[in-house]
Design goal:
The complex is a heterodimer of chains A (145) and B (589). Chain A is built from five helices and three strands, in the order ααβααββα. Chain A is mainly α and 145 residues long. Chain A folds into two domains: 54 residues; 62 residues. The mean pLDDT of chain A is 89. The N terminus and C terminus of chain B are likely disordered. Chain B is an all-alpha fold and 589 residues long. Classes of the chains: A mainly alpha (145), B mainly alpha (589). Chains A and B meet through α1, α2, α3, β3 and α5 of A and α1, α4, α5, α6 and α7 of B.
């Protein structure tokens, strides 16, 4: 966690420095704001991760000597299959086409988006399939036997 | 029932481990795959949240769009092969080059990498059962497909498709100069595909941050996945800016705002600032995934660990960071940008890129190189991208840019950069991972014909374009005069384009032959290094039943070759054996 905290915070610091250099050399608003926006995009999550890295016990994926067995158990609940991403995607498609072809498409786009929102929420409450972590492979020497 | 889309007669792998006979994962017979009950056929395609199904959907869609855009390129080349050609009207020509660029950049090169191969491979490389947000992943694909159809449908509306170039410069793109629904459809397509990319970026970050297997620390993550993480961050920086710019342009076109029009107090060059703040990172959003592919491929076919793993990671980060500070080198000729700032930062990108070349060559140096198809395409990438990169350094110099801006010199430069990455490296990745995705091999002989056709056609097409650009031929012209002296070079370029076109027929034949007469691949046909080669080909629904211990950046190699295990990052004892022949390996011998 510390590595990607540093990674993201590093992005923020880099763009902050470049943004300031740009402002004091170019005095151009648009580019300056975009660079500072990029700096914040790195600094916000980066500082959050760095803070968390000091408050959380080391995770198996950050431990270079961790064994596969340390990740045993349920990883998370994953959806098996779902029609709602397709419905939401089509809803988004018809909604943007409203801006090109007229408001008559808006009810269709809106209805699809609304039904996807309801459907996906109900589906989430029902829960997905719990996925168990992979087991450790047999010992290498055994694998050669 | 399973959620994969392979036909039921798909051949299951016969050998458990690498081609040297070492055992790989505890063998996964069809019977011990974790099955997933779900729909099949087209309903599976519509409802699947499996990253492998979505990844393959992305790849197939983007390849179809690649071929459509390629046919447009051939029409453009035929038009330019004779002066004052009347094959297509000037308006149609404008639509063709606009849509060619848009399809290739927005709908092929990016989505093929971060929607297709990354979607399929990154969860496998980090030992995850799926992407972190599977339904969001599916939504990304549907937005991408919807955006692609929206963009192409411009050809069906009155006034035709967008015709202002893939960069849509204001004021050319305003409602007065580019009226019609085609331009609006183009803008809406960018909005949809932009969100698709952003969602994929979020998903990739979360997957790499949170779903890595125990022991797979960040500095053991394969370089392809590292590059996808950096690409995802770049997407999150760049695409929201593009979306904002698209909304503003649409408001100018239809809602009476004057953000990019001088008459109402707006600033046309602001579009260029916004667009290129997206557009230059976009170049690296298109390039970095492909750098990652060849970085994973070259060590496997050199039978060595990657030379300079951490150097590669930091070079990728440096390229990405610098790429976001160089947007206005596309705007030198506007006269309103700070030339020294953008020129200096542009030159600096050559340093981390040079480190990457050094490390690629260092990896091959002293290795037991075998030139199977993925390696051939990777080496082709090195040559192609080198030429595109060197001419990019030239263009970072304002005086040179003033002379060559908007000429065919620039066209040749960016085609060599983008074909070097998205096509050479992209197909290297496709040939490399196809056995993993489909459990069957592509034919080496047809793959090599594809490569050599592409490689020869590539140089024949684009080297004359540098010369014709230096002779003054501008971009985006549908006709020229015989007295300009550009005809011969254009004819050569057109011949080269058709050689490229023919080379892709070998690719299609290869796919067809592989489908009709499959040669089973086995789990690890190339004796690969990373985790994806530990599972079955194709992987089962949630990818892994077992994982090897992860003690280096190449855990599958360590497991299969305990006598040559990587001792420390980037160091191992040399391999004693030459690389096996791909087709024999694929045959499960």
């Amino acid at each position: 966690m510390k590595v990607y905290g540093l990674f993201l915070a590093g992005i923020g610091v880099f763009f902050g420095i470049i943004g300031l250099i740009y402002w004091f050399t170019a005095y151009e608003d648009g580019g300056f704001l975009m660079l500072i926006g990029s700096a914040l995009l790195g600094l916000f999550p980066g500082s959050y991760y760095l803070w968390w890295s000091t408050h959380q016990k080391p995770q198996p994926d950050d431990d270079p000597s961790a064994d596969i067995a340390q990740g045993a158990g349920t990883i998370d609940s994953f959806p098996g299959s779902s029609i709602w991403p397709f419905v939401l995607g089509m809803g988004a498609l018809f909604t943007v086409l409203t801006f090109v072809f007229g408001l008559w498409l808006a009810p269709l786009g809106g209805a699809l988006i609304l039904s996807a929102a309801i459907g996906a929420t109900v589906e989430s409450r029902r829960g997905g399939i719990p996925v168990t972590a992979a087991a450790a492979a047999p010992d290498v020497d055994a694998g050669h036997a | 029932m399973t959620t994969t889309i392979e036909p039921p007669d798909l051949i299951t792998p016969e050998q458990p481990g690498g081609p040297d006979g070492h055992a790989g994962a505890p063998h996964h017979d069809a019977g011990d795959h974790p099955h997933h009950e779900g729909p099949t056929g087209i309903l599976n395609w519509l409802t699947s949240t499996d990253h492998k199904v979505i990844g393959k959907s992305y790849m197939i869609t983007s390849l179809v769009l690649f071929f459509i855009a390629g046919i447009m390129a051939l029409v453009i080349r035929v038009q330019l092969s004779t002066p004052s050609s009347s094959l297509v009207s000037f308006q149609t020509y404008n639509e063709l080059f606009t849509m060619h660029g848009s399809l290739m950049l927005y709908l092929f090169a990016g989505p093929f990498a971060f929607g297709g191969l990354a979607n399929y491979i990154v969860p496998l490389q980090v030992g995850a059962p799926d992407m972190a947000f599977p339904r969001l992943n599916a939504l990304s694909y549907w937005l991408y497909l919807g955006g692609s159809i929206t963009m192409l449908s411009g050809f069906l509306v009155a006034g035709g498709a967008a015709s202002f170039g893939w960069v849509a410069y204001a004021p050319l793109s305003n409602a007065t100069n580019s009226p019609g629904a085609g331009a609006d459809l183009w803008l809406m397509a960018l909005a949809l595909t932009g969100f698709s990319a952003i969602f994929t970026g979020v998903n990739l970050c979360a997957t790499i941050f949170y779903l890595r297997a125990p022991g797979l620390t960040m500095f053991r993550v394969p370089i392809f996945s590292w590059n996808m993480l950096v690409t995802a961050i770049l997407i999150l920086i760049a695409f929201p800016v593009l979306f904002g710019a698209v909304v503003m342009l649409f408001c100018d076109r239809h809602f009476g705002t004057h953000i990019f029009t001088v008459q109402g107090g707006g600033v046309p060059v602001l579009w260029q600032n916004l667009f290129w703040f997206f557009g230059h990172p976009e170049v690296y959003i298109l390039a970095l995934p492909y750098f990652g592919m060849v970085t994973d491929i070259i060590p496997v076919f050199s039978r060595k660990p990657l030379f300079g793993y951490k150097g590669m990671v930091f070079a990728t980060m440096s390229i990405a960071a610098l790429s976001t500070g160089v947007w206005a080198h596309h705007m030198f000729t506007t006269g309103v940008v700070l030339l020294p700032f953008f020129s200096l930062l542009s030159y600096m990108i050559a340093i981390p890129t040079g480190i990457k070349f050094f490390n690629w060559i260092g990896t091959m140096w002293g290795g037991q190189i075998s030139f199977q198809t993925p390696m051939l395409f990777s080496v082709g990438f090195l040559f192609a991208f080198l030429m595109g990169g060197v001419t990019g350094v030239l263009l970072a110099s304002p005086p040179v840019d003033f002379m060559t801006h908007d000429t065919y010199f620039v066209v040749a430069h960016f085609h060599q950069v983008l074909i070097g990455t998205a096509v050479f490296a992209g197909f290297a990745g496709f040939y490399f991972w196809y056995p993993k995705m489909y459990g069957r091999m592509l034919r080496e002989s047809l793959g090599k014909l594809h490569f050599w056709g592409l490689f020869i056609g590539f140089w024949v097409t684009f080297m004359p374009q540098y010369v014709v650009g230096l002779k003054g031929m501008p971009r985006r012209v549908a006709a020229y005069l015989p007295s300009n002296g550009w005809t011969t070079l254009n004819v050569i370029s057109t011949v080269g384009a058709f050689i490229i076109g023919v080379s892709f027929l070998f690719f299609l034949i290869n796919l067809w032959v592989s489908w009709r007469n499959p040669i089973p691949a086995g789990d690890n046909p190339w004796d690969g290094h990373a985790l994806e080669w530990f599972t079955t080909s194709p992987p089962s629904h949630h990818n892994y039943t077992h994982l090897p211990p992860i003690r280096s950046e190449r855990p599958t190699w360590d497991y299969n070759h305990p006598e040559h295990r990587t001792i420390h990052s980037g160091k191992s004892t040399p391999s004693p054996e030459p690389s096996p022949d791909g087709e024999k390996v694929g045959a499960g011998s």
